[in-house]
UniProtKB/TrEMBL annotation:
PANTHER family for this protein: BLR5498 PROTEIN, LUCIFERASE-LIKE MONOOXYGENASE
Full protein name: Alkanesulfonate monooxygenase SsuD/methylene tetrahydromethanopterin reductase-like flavin-dependent oxidoreductase (Luciferase family)
GO cellular component assignments: cytosol
Cross-referenced InterPro entries: Bact_Lucif_Oxidored, Luciferase-like_sf
Species this chain originates from: Plantactinospora soyae
Keywords per UniProt: Monooxygenase, Oxidoreductase
Keyword Oxidoreductase: yes
GO molecular function: monooxygenase activity; oxidoreductase activity, acting on paired donors, with incorporation or reduction of molecular oxygen
Amino acid sequence: MAITGTATDNPARFPRLSELYRQATAQTGSAPLPIGVHSPGHVAATDEQAREEYWPTYRTFLLDVRRQRGFPEITREYFEHEVSYGSLYVGSPETVAGRIVKTMTILGATRFDLKYGMGPMPHAILMENIRLFGTEVAPRVRERLRLPVARS
């Protein structure tokens, strides 16, 4: 089962879906597949830097979609709320790792995919995001959840 975060989706509202999924597979005699989470985000050296780098990208990405659907333009306050309470995983490696661990624990998930590269972000900033996620966030998450290192 994949849980894809969208703006306004607080991960804490999904545990019931995880439980329903497990119940349904048990009732049909199927073995449940692992639960994964896929949410947008951005990692930088500090929380402030991550927010400042991601805000214009996030806003631009959603601007056309929101206009097409008749939704109001996104505000900075909305963005900040989503970073703090929604499905945006934006912050320092420590902040993002902590939020991922909390979400995976609540949902019983075994996989988390950070959706990066949404919108017009400068290449160097995007690459630093990927580096920090792989070298600082993922190891913290694995350690705290006692997950094995994936091998390719």
